[in-house]
Specification:
Elements (H helix, E strand, L loop, with lengths): L1 H8 L18 H8 L6 H9 L1 H8 L3 H15 L9 H27 L9 H9 L4
Helix pairs in contact: 1-2, 3-4
Length: 135
């Protein structure tokens, strides 16, 4: 789902040519771009591709600003700078974004669970942080 989104935004003039770009129907990009939020996994895809915080910031942008920022991201995804995105480059990007999200999430949860701030989480701390209001 993410690759078609990239292909729709990039032909708007900012970006990288793609192998599938030439095969798109005239006007299809604009038509699909207007309705891309209709899919059931849109928010999940947005977060997987951009990261949770970045996805939130994109939600506040105008379509023009969003296209510009996405074009810059596409430049970063194109590892070999050949002007094309491969499936492997896209997979690597998503893995990198997800790994960053995991590390950030672990750091936040660690702070919440390490109640005595000794940089260790004891079973009692875990129980208190997880079930404290039930006990």
């Amino acid at each position: 789902l993410l690759l078609p989104l990239l292909l729709l935004v990039v032909p708007g003039g900012l970006g990288k040519p793609t192998a599938r770009q030439e095969r798109a129907r005239p006007g299809a990009a604009q038509q699909q771009q207007q309705h891309h939020e209709d899919g059931p996994g849109f928010q999940y895809d947005h977060e997987a591709f951009l990261g949770k915080e970045e996805a939130r910031s994109f939600d506040q942008l105008s379509p023009e600003e969003s296209r510009e920022r996405l074009g810059k991201i596409v430049d970063r995804i194109d590892e070999n700078k050949d002007g094309y995105l491969t499936t492997e480059e896209l997979k690597n990007w998503i893995k990198r974004v997800q790994k960053r999200y995991i590390y950030e999430n672990v750091a936040k949860v660690w702070k919440d669970y390490d109640l005595n701030k000794d940089n260790k989480i004891a079973w009692e701390e875990y129980k208190q942080a997880t079930y404290g209001y039930y006990l």
